[in-house]
């Protein structure tokens, strides 16, 4: 099964990469989990001084890279990794390159390239409107939304490391893993898989392999490093494994529907299998059936914030906005990371109730969501709608100006900013911001 997934990843072409674009997934559950994987390792590497951001790339092939402040990981890598330790190992290896100063100049360039992301639709199914938030009224309607990021870089070959750098990164990675009392077994498993699929697949090689050369001597070194660690047989904590499976189920449901979920989980009765099934049921068009499945999942696992979150999405689709708001509220309270993504959806649900008394709270929640997560483009649209519903047209225009500006759509941003400046009280913070946007680039 894992081999099949990997082979699929090996042979899949990547339209996103061919266009020099990175398609980004925003999802509270996956982002939080990956931060939990990365944070201790980066701390051990002395790399997380300014906070680290995890970017999930919507791409079925296996890839991961780090540009200093940001870790990019493909959905393909997440889905094909059977346990957290495999992804943690890849992060440790990338951190090794970073700490070693490998390809420093290229990393700097990458870090400057703006992750220009515009929310377009659902992972795997969304039509992405690059460079434009206006006209995209749908926004993110699911837990996972894709966006188009356009740092103009073809990642294939961008970070091609020398063999000596690979061994150096492996050694550093083993050190970070030991320092955090984790096994290097996952890192070994991942790279062994690559070396095996390379020989099986002949010429078809993956971008990760191209950029991280895998000579036989490197596998031998990895083996000795992993086995020398006192933590070689240390397993991931059970709670982390459970979250990893939930993540894989979600990605499977979004990328391949019911069939992909069934392929991934032999045990149909597991929580993750049922979670994937519920998501796939909704994405397949049967939200009413999905709601029943989610009700059962909430009963089975009442403190999982992301089941509540997805339930909120389904309720919104079913036009039960007040219930959706309650579900998002619950999700937000349970979510340790207090994700701005969930808060924004709470705001959307409050607005969708059509209840006048909820509009102020919708504005408030959306504003707070954007404060913690200013790159959530769909939330600007919703904030604009919420201001519009409250009769505050000046701030509605300003929210559109800000969203377009953040999306790199400066021309549109200035049009909205001009309208906002004409409506907001002079010298108010909003009017000042509108004028800032108007004078940018002049
Ligand atoms: Zn490498």
Describe the fold and architecture.
With 442 residues, the chain is of the alpha+beta class. The protein has helices spanning 2-11, 15-18, 28-44, 75-80, 84-99, 104-112, 163-179, 185-201, 207-211, 216-228, 238-264, 271-283, 287-300, 305-317, 321-334, 340-352, 356-372, 377-389, 393-406, 410-423, 429-439; strands spanning 22-26, 53-57, 64-66, 70-74, 118-122, 145-149. Strand 3 (64-66) and strand 4 form a beta hairpin. 54% of the residues are buried. Mean pLDDT is 81; it is low at 1-20, 114-157 and 199-205. It binds zinc ion. Zinc ion (ZN) binds at residues 93, 97, 161, 166, 169, 212.
List the topology elements.
Elements: H1 2-11, H2 15-18, E1 22-26, H3 28-44, E2 53-57, E3 64-66, E4 70-74, H4 75-80, H5 84-99, H6 104-112, E5 118-122, E6 145-149, H7 163-179, H8 185-201, H9 207-211, H10 216-228, H11 238-264, H12 271-283, H13 287-300, H14 305-317, H15 321-334, H16 340-352, H17 356-372, H18 377-389, H19 393-406, H20 410-423, H21 429-439
Parallel strand pairs: 2-4
Antiparallel strand pairs: 1-2, 1-6, 3-4, 5-6
Helix pairs in contact: 3-5, 5-7, 5-8, 7-10, 8-10, 11-12, 12-13, 13-14, 14-15, 14-16, 15-16, 16-17, 16-18, 17-18, 18-19, 19-20, 19-21, 20-21
Bound molecules: zinc ion.
Question: What sort of overall outline do the alpha carbons produce when their principal axes are compared?
Answer: globular
> Total helix count?
21
* Widest sheet, order of strands: 3-4-2-1-6-5
Query: Which secondary-structure class do the elements indicate?
Result: alpha+beta
Mean pLDDT: 81
Secondary-structure element sequence? HHEHEEEHHHEEHHHHHHHHHHHHHHH
Helix content, binned percent: 55-70%
- Rg over CA atoms, rounded to whole Å, is 22 Å
Write down how many β-strands occur, each being a DSSP E stretch of 2 or more residues: 6
What is the end-to-end distance? 56 Å
Which band does the percent of strand residues land in?
5-15%
Enumerate the distinct ligands.
Answer: zinc ion
Biggest beta sheet attributes: 6 strands, mixed
Q: Low-confidence spans: pLDDT under 50, at least 5 residues?
A: 1-20, 114-157, 199-205
